[in-house]
């Protein structure tokens, strides 16, 4: 639960919506701190959280299902403003004695609602005007609870928004948090500021000040070890700690042979020379390649890399002397997933981080970024004067290039992929697209195709180019990159990367595909 240092905070109760994290992001973007907790959070914990407002998320269930999620009805006795979204609105209706029924037709997609009340939740909107919103529901409100009035309606949902203004209970049948509801942020801000009385106090500069102070108090005179990869999360974690405790922080960079070209050298330069950190490079390329020899299965690759990382990291950490804490760049989406009421989701692929180290090394864990979303981490990086190219660095998988080489990982195949990867990133940067797309990278496929170079037949490797747009990596769509950019990427790779005679572009979305190929 949040510290009492956050006086302006909102509680989001999660009923299983795929958009719950988006609600939190929109609230944070309005500079109000919020946390997501399962719908069945106890009343005692809700009281202890002391929120200025409560948002009930959507969810896939019908309120009349036997297994329909139900929050503690006592939360309505707390005299705290409540906003129910989709299922959250139906839960509110059911709890207060209204009637929820199956809609004649499932309403999904963009719908125009008519604003009937331009005060409170729809302050700043024009009464009688239409607004485009995103609907996704099979049930609708048939009869409002006593004391409620309709604020907006659509053809299929006459009660698309409702309110009991005296008790500050509000409900919307649509999703204000998604991009398909253009004025959604305005609706949420009306709830936060006009109805809950919140103030916009959640800023990254205040986060840095409070976190640095808290890290000093927590660590005292003890030393901290941090695994530094050069990625955004570990970099911001390391700089925050260095700002707080200086040379009592020791960082370890493991070169596992799976980094991009010149990556280890660039990380050493930034953090040793620019920040003056105590950073130690462990050259372990041969160690990792030996253990990966002959391994083709992607899940086995991940397990080997994770296991050997722990072995190498632990050995170096012991050489550096006694430490009490291990710092890790855990983010808020990881925390949410760990407390999700839905239970563990199916394993798509194993994740690789240093999560296993505390048990092995008997260290206490420090996770200074566990309250933040990725975009907030980037803002913290800017506050800490990290180089922009590092702060805006695209996500890179923990197992590195191993999961972008389909099949066995060898020196030769790594060099082929690195050469192609450099070209992809150079062309994307040159076209001004690097910060506009979520990820851009090359994949080395385990197939060869026939080609012609000069007057000779070739039989060589295929490179797949993967470029996607996303907000949070939960879903992604392939990027509509200009043909001339794709053409330059293809021509340069085929002409300059030895052993490659074909380039293909991946136009699959997530779901059903994943962003990475392994």
What does this structure look like?
The strands form three sheets. This protein has a nine-stranded mixed beta sheet, with helices on both faces. The longest helix has 22 residues. The chain contains 15 helices and 18 strands. It folds into three domains: 187 residues, Rossmann fold, CATH 3.40.50; 188 residues, HUPs (Rossmann fold), CATH 3.40.50; 96 residues, 2-Layer Sandwich (GMP Synthetase, Chain A, domain 3), CATH 3.30.300. The protein is of the alpha/beta class and 518 residues long. Helices cover 33% and strands 24% of the residues.
Overall SS class: alpha/beta
Measured distance between first and last alpha carbons: 35 Å
- Looking at CATH, the homologous superfamily of the largest domain is HUPs
What is the percent of helical residues?
Answer: 25-40%
Q: Average pLDDT value?
A: 90
The CATH C-level class name of the largest domain = Alpha Beta
Key attributes of the depicted protein:
five-stranded parallel sheet, 518 residues, 3 domains, GMP Synthetase, Chain A, domain 3, Rossmann fold, alpha/beta, nine-stranded mixed sheet
Concise summary:
The protein has about 525 residues and is α/β, with parallel strands linked by helices.
Strand and helix layout:
Blueprint (H helix, E strand, L loop, with lengths): L8 E6 L5 H10 L3 E6 L4 H7 L3 E4 L25 E4 L1 H9 L3 E17 L14 E14 L5 E5 L7 E4 L4 E4 L11 H12 L8 H16 L4 E4 L4 H14 L3 E7 L7 H12 L3 E6 L1 H8 L5 H22 L5 E3 L4 H8 L17 H5 L2 E3 L7 H10 L4 H4 L19 H20 L8 E15 L2 E14 L7 E2 L4 H14 L3 E6 L13
Helix pairs in contact: 5-6, 5-12, 6-12, 8-9, 14-15
């Amino acid at each position: 639960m949040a510290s009492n240092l956050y006086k302006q905070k909102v509680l989001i109760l999660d009923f299983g919506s795929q958009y719950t994290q988006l609600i939190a992001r929109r609230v944070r973007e309005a500079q109000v701190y919020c946390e997501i907790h399962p719908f069945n959070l106890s009343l005692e914990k809700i009281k202890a959280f002391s929120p200025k407002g409560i948002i009930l998320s959507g969810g896939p269930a019908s309120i009349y299902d036997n297994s329909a999620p139900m929050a503690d009805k006592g939360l309505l006795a707390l005299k705290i403003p409540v906003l129910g979204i989709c299922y959250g609105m139906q839960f509110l209706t059911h709890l207060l004695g209204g009637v929820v029924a199956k809609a004649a037709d499932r309403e999904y997609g963009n719908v125009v609602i008519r604003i009937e009340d331009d005060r409170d939740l729809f302050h700043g909107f024009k009464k009688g005007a239409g607004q485009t919103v995103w609907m996704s529901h099979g049930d609708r409100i048939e009869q409002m609870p006593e004391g409620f009035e309709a604020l907006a309606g659509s053809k299929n949902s006459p009660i698309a928004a409702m309110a009991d203004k005296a008790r500050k209970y509000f409900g919307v049948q649509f999703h204000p948090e998604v991009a398909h509801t253009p004025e959604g942020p305005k609706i949420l801000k009306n709830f936060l500021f006009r109805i809950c009385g919140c103030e916009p106090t959640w800023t990254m500069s205040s986060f840095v000040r409070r976190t640095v102070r808290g890290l000093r108090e927590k660590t005292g005179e003890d030393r901290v070890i941090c695994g530094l990869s050069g990625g955004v999360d570990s970099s911001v974690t390391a700089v925050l700690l260095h700002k707080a405790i200086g040379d009592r922080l020791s960082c370890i960079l493991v070169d596992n042979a799976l980094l991009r070209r010149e990556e280890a050298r660039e990380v050493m330069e930034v953090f040793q020379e620019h920040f003056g950190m105590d950073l130690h490079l462990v050259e372990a390329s041969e160690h990792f390649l030996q253990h990966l020899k002959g391994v083709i299965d992607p899940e086995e690759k991940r397990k080997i890399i994770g296991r050997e990382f722990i072995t190498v990291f632990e050995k170096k950490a012991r050489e550096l002397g006694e430490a009490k804490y291990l710092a890790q760049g855990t983010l808020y989406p990881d925390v949410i997933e760990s407390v999700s009421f839905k239970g563990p989701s199916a394993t798509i692929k194993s994740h690789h981080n240093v999560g296993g180290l505390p048990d092995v090394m008997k260290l206490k864990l420090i996770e200074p970024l566990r309250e933040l979303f990725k975009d907030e981490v980037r803002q913290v990086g800017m506050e800490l004067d990290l180089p922009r190219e590092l702060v805006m660095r695209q996500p890179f998988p923990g197992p590195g290039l191993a999961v972008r080489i389909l099949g066995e990982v060898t020196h030769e195949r790594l060099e082929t992929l690195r050469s192609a990867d450099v070209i992809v990133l150079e062309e994307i940067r040159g076209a001004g697209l690097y910060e506009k797309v979520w990820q851009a990278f090359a994949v080395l496929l385990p197939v060869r195709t026939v080609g012609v170079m000069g007057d000779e037949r070739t039989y060589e490797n295929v490179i797949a180019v993967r470029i996607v747009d996303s907000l949070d990596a939960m879903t992604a769509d392939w990027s509509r990159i200009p043909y001339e950019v794709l053409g330059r990427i293809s021509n340069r790779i085929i002409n300059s990367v030895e052993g490659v005679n074909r380039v293909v572009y991946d136009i699959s979305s997530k779901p059903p595909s994943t962003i990475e190929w392994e």
